[in-house]
Amino acid sequence: xxxxxxxxxxxxxxxxxxxxxxxxxxxxxxxxxxxxxxxxxxxxxxxxxxxxxxxxxxxxxxxxxxxxxxxxxxxxxxxxxxxxxxxxxxxxxxxxxxxxxxxxxxxxxxxxxxxxxxxxxxxxxxxxxxxxxxxxxxxxxxxxxxxxxxxxxxxxxxxxxxxxxxxxxxxxxxxxxxxxxxxxxxxxxxxxxxxxxxxxxxxxxxxxxxxxxxxxxxxxxxxxxxxxx
Length: 229
Prior knowledge:
alpha+beta; 10-stranded antiparallel β-barrel
């Protein structure tokens, strides 16, 4: 009887040691790339912003004038190993989820050796084959750089943590200069602010060597997207 009791004590002590060791193991910090992808993935639109905008902004987009249009945005994590381990496909449509495609991009997230979170962006040479296929399993598996226009590591947005658990990414024309599909060289300014509560601000512009804008998306007020249910 005493022996059984001793065995029980030994087992209890051993279990306590194991549990104590487990408790002492440091928690593995989540990868910041996964945190950003989780916040971005889903469907968004800027309808609230568009509905509240003055009529003078609801005009066709121009390079020089001021405007704001209605956009539906879908961000989907895809399997495209040739472009990185953490890749998003984004597809924007004019006016709503069934509108014409206005933008197709690949965003690939990586970490620099110093731990800085960076995002490389790519445009499609011809995105027709991928339209509407963001959630199709395996649709992007064979995608590689030959089907895309990349802009080099100097143009990768740099992300930092923002207040409230969000993230902010940006790149400036002083760092990012590229030759666009049009053949014109331009400096790129781009900013993305992602709030943990479900809001996304986006703005991008390209300025030519002579100081003129090649494009502004949108011109003076950033898109204010809200996550859709």
